[in-house]
Amino acid sequence: MSAVLFDAATDVLTVAGVASHSAGTLEASFTGKPAAVAAGSIRFEAVEKTYVSSAGPVKALTDITIEVPGGSIFGIIGRSGAGKSSLLRTINRLELPTGGHVLVDGEDISTFHEDQLVALRRRVGMIFQHFNLLSAKTVFANVALPLVVAGVKKQEVKERVAAVLKLVGLEGKENTYPSRLSGGQKQRVGIARALVSRPEILLCDEATSALDPETTLSILSLLKDINRRLGLTIVLITHEMSVIREICDHVLVLEAGRIAETGRVWEVFGNPRHEATRALLKPLDRGLPEDLAGRLNSRWSGKPATALIEFTYTGVGGLQPDLGRILAVLGEDTQIIQSNLDRIQGHVSGRLIVASAARADLHHLIANPDLAHAARIIGYDTPNV
Ligand SMILES: Nc1ncnc2c1ncn2[C@@H]1O[C@H](COP(=O)(O)OP(=O)(O)OP(=O)(O)O)[C@@H](O)[C@H]1O
Q1: What is the ipTM of this complex?
Q2: Where is the ABC transporter domain positioned along the sequence (predicted)?
Q3: Residue 212, Cβ density class (10 Å: 0-12 exposed, 13-18 middle, ≥19 buried)
């Protein structure tokens, strides 16, 4: 896929140029656009994509209808082959849907002619997993390329490249070659190159997958900063759920080319409804310690034992673990065994596992909507005598 992306990137660079507007005035710059549509909004309407291959047709996307709000950070996740790249690449027409429509700022881009496509690709920047920098060119020349191709005057190129390098924290690196840069710095060059055309949408295809965890965090914080400061819509594909949790407002889960589920990140991650989402989120779930899991019985013998109780929180209605309340209901000798709780967009979700004395009315006691959104007894730990 990288080779294809590289060609595609070159194509984008060849056609990309300078937009005559800043992010704040983008909407006014395009004619024929409904005034009510927010800058940087994207709408997929019944989008279909079927590839023709030597082995026969491959259906990559089926009936995708969804809205990406302008100015939001929107994550797309799904297993390998789910259709994430295919969908992302319809936004700048690197892929043309075989059915349905993609609307950018309310305009159906499937009808665009060549000159409109050039303008579209200025409005929609893209960054890649392997950065796609030109190794024989300096940082300055890499970032300046879209402006040079568009015929922007030298002085303006200089000023705009300087401004964008400052924005991404690469001041002083103008004359450095990519081979001398760290992975994080290379991605900053990629981001600067995408931003120099002043796009209103930034597409990120696994932009942090080649980076170590610390560098990933610094790039994510840069993307968040750009989103806030420039009002840019960011659509990103990632296989790292922590990336979605860290910066996205909304998430779309694709499964075999269809929408599995979508919503605000705290809603989808707090209460995943689709099996595909649960499978993707599994790495974030620590599970019970093995020694404990191995000792548990599913039934209570009636003899003295400890019951392990799992309280689940989905983030809905602001309900979150209240230890005082749990102790009041279950007794002072109740202990916390494991906490797998997360705070996303101000909503607490996840699981809290506690141990409390087994007793006949335990099921009844824990079925209390003031304690958690759901509760269950995982099993019973009977001490050896
Ligand atoms: N140019 C192509 N020709 C034929 N089939 C393709 C082409 N591009 C993608 N596909 C197929 O379309 C489906 C969706 O591919 P896509 O790359 O969009 O998935 P993805 O979710 O991005 O996968 P990954 O996470 O592995 O990159 C897959 O079955 C893939 O093999």
Answers
A1: 0.98
A2: 42-281
A3: exposed
